[in-house]
């Protein structure tokens, strides 16, 4: 280490061939895959009077980070 943080742990795009792609950004070291469930409130409706009712939406997603 010479003062540069490098790309270890940096998020990358698994399908991109550009500079944000895992193959190029990770310099051939490979990448880790992190799977998680993203949850948020959705389809919110205002009811008179006076509250908001929402559904809970979620989706499984993956993130990739250089080794």
From TrEMBL:
Q: What is its main location?
A: secreted
Q: Does the keyword Lipoprotein apply?
A: yes
Similarity section: Belongs to the Wnt family.
Location within or outside the cell: Secreted, Extracellular space, Extracellular matrix
- Would you kindly state one Gene Ontology biological process term found in this protein's UniProt entry? positive regulation of JNK cascade
Q: Which InterPro entries match?
A: Wnt, Wnt_C
Give the source species. Answer: Magallana gigas (Pacific oyster)
Q: What's the stated role of this polypeptide?
A: Ligand for members of the frizzled family of seven transmembrane receptors.
* Name of the protein in question: Protein Wnt
Q: Which domain of life is it from?
A: Eukaryota
Which Gene Ontology terms cover its molecular function?
Answer: cytokine activity; frizzled binding
Q: Which UniProt keywords apply?
A: Developmental protein, Disulfide bond, Extracellular matrix, Glycoprotein, Lipoprotein, Secreted, Wnt signaling pathway
A GO CC annotation recorded here is: extracellular space
